[in-house]
Amino acid sequence: MAGARIKTRAEIPGASYVSSAILAARVESVSHNTATLFNLIKPVPGDSQRFQSNEGIVNVVPRGRIYRLETLSELDTFKVELLRRPTVLQCQFRTGTGMAGCPYFPAFDCRLGTTESDWLIMLNQLHPKILSRYQMGIDMIRKAMVHEVPCVLQFNFNERLRDLMVSLVGPSAENHSYFNCDFAEMLVIYSGKSSRVSDPKNIAKSREIMFNFDDISNNDVLLQTAEKGAEIQIGSPQTEGDLKRYLRGWEFSLSEDPSLEPRSRYSYATAGRMFYDLQRTDDIAESEM
Predict the structure, then answer these.
(1) Where are the domains of the chain?
(2) What is the C-alpha separation between 38 and 46, in angstroms, rounded?
(3) What gap in Å lies between CA 146 and CA 149, rounded to an integer?
(4) Alpha-carbon distance 98 to 178, whole Å?
């Protein structure tokens, strides 16, 4: 589980030129100061542990949310919303000794001896490592819908974030033997001709499609801390210039008119070109420093 520690924005030379796939922040940091995530989200009234979008600039996914689709039109709407703004997942990390100290149950998954911490994970929908999976998954479920084949599509970040947990949680987790991450996924279900069901496992003969984002590395993740949030000068509501100043390589829909958004036309080739352009610009910026 050991690996290079994820750097904070202050520790990265030329940080304003860094294009990241994921921004991660502890819930308590954002609750204390929403500027930690650039005032893009705010606590739900009466519950400082749950969040909602501020001005609709990002998609905030509640824990356990399932997107149920019945028509291709609904899929098109889902795709537009997925690609026009970042998505924020409200996940939970669990670390600790678990039952690893017991020789009779070395792999027993148990909550005993674990510590829970709530995190907010913001996904860059246009980063090539994410966009390519989004496009592929949507194309695959579209084909299933055309043939009326029940399908379960999952964009799952749990395993990758679990592997990055030592870097995210810090040195206190390095001596732990149990690591887990929950609720860092998006689940899309098409039930075909069958009736709606509450559990995707009950869909008879359903096709299961899962993307785990295994190639997201430490260098693709930026950790936002309360200390950094205190240094961020950004208004609410935000302007596109404010956001671009801090989040180069990210795009936010500040318009509610989908006809003005070309996001649904992004392809695998687009993702590759964007990745190349971002890298080339980053190299030029670093050489000028």
Answers:
(1) 9-287
(2) 21
(3) 8
(4) 6
